[in-house]
Every structure is written in C-alpha cells, then in structure tokens.
Amino acid sequence: MAQSRYVAPAYNGPKVPYRDSAPPAVAPFYSNLGSTACTGCNYDTSNGLLVIGPANCFASGATQWAAVPFIAGKSGQVRKVQVAVTLDSALCSNGANKFQVAIYSDACAGPAALLGGPVTVTAPAAPCGLATANFGTTGPALTAGTEYWVVAETAANQTKFTGVWWQSYHELTSFNLNDGNGWLYPATYGPNDLAMSVQ
C-alpha cells in the first residue's frame, strides 16, 4: 500500500516581509529562492510539506521528515543552509519551534550518508521568514556537479515540532479549459520543489 505525504494547506495568515541583511558575497552552491511582486515572499506559500515530530499538533503519533536533492554548482565548504520552513498557527500551534537541518550524500533514490549536521534551527513564526542553519567552519565540503540532499528532521527533544516546508516558485504550473473558470492548478498539485538555499 502506498504511503501518503502530509501536505499543508495554503497559508492565509499574516506574512512578514523577507529581508536578507547580509546576502552572500559569492554565488551559492544551490538556490531555488526567488521573489515575486505578487506576494513579496521569496517562496510560494500556496503549498508545502509538513515536517513533524511524533508529538506534533497536526497528526499526533505521526512523524514526517523532508529531504530535497540539489546538485552543487561549485566546489567548497558549506557555511549556511536556509530552508523555507515556518510554523503555521492557522494549521495548529503548540509553541515548539526547533527542528534540525542536515546535509547527506546521494543514494540515487534519497539521502545516503550524513555529511554535515544536523544543526538545530528555529522556525520563523510565519512566512516569509527562512530558517537558517549555520554550519560555520564545520560544514561539509561539496564537489561541483555532485548531487546532495538537504534534510529537515526532528531530534528526540523536538517531538512536538509542527512546521511547513514551503515550495519554491519554480514548480508552479496551471491550466485553462477555456470554460470561464480561468487558470487552475491540477487536482493532484502538490509540493515537490521545496524552497531552500545552500551557501
């Protein structure tokens, strides 16, 4: 029997404009963050994947972590990873705001070996914030052209965490049947390209 993912509904609460006080001086290893004049967010809050520990406030007893593959655009050492993981008080709220971010090697079907982290991070209270994992001088060395995975997970002391990893703008697609209903998203539309930046 196939397993289903816990998908978050569109976010309709208040948003905090994203401000990056210190943009990186050099190009990142990977980024799918991008802004739009429509929302002021650098990711899309119409869909996301839940990141939850077993004592979460959405689906008690369930655990779901999320992993996103990326191909390093350069070689070097990771200093920082930013993920579009936030809390969503409209979904539920229990006050838990800590989770972990790690970098893994690739197993061709998912994450393989742990390369860096996990680093404990704080999820912003709402979009359009980014959760930042600072690896400092302990980040893994990446090789250009090699695939890696960024993983959002919960530790044993983070069982109540209930967050949403929002999708990037890059996967947005829609269709129009020319029946007067305008442009629509497919019924099976779901998050696949979760928003993040590896620097």
Task: Jot down its keywords.
mainly beta; Jelly Rolls; four-stranded antiparallel sheet; 0% helix; globular
How would you describe what is shown here?
There is one protein chain. With 199 residues, the protein is mainly β. The protein has a domain at 43-172 and 191-198: Jelly Rolls. The chain contains no helices and 16 strands. It has strands at residues 7-8, 30-31, 44-52, 66-71, 76-77, 80-83, 85-86, 98-106, 111-122, 131-134, 141-142, 147-153, 162-167, 175-176, 183-184, 196-198. A hairpin with a 4-residue loop joins strand 8 and strand 9. The radius of gyration is 17 Å and the shape is globular.
Write the SSE topology:
Layout: E1 7-8, E2 30-31, E3 44-52, E4 66-71, E5 76-77, E6 80-83, E7 85-86, E8 98-106, E9 111-122, E10 131-134, E11 141-142, E12 147-153, E13 162-167, E14 175-176, E15 183-184, E16 196-198
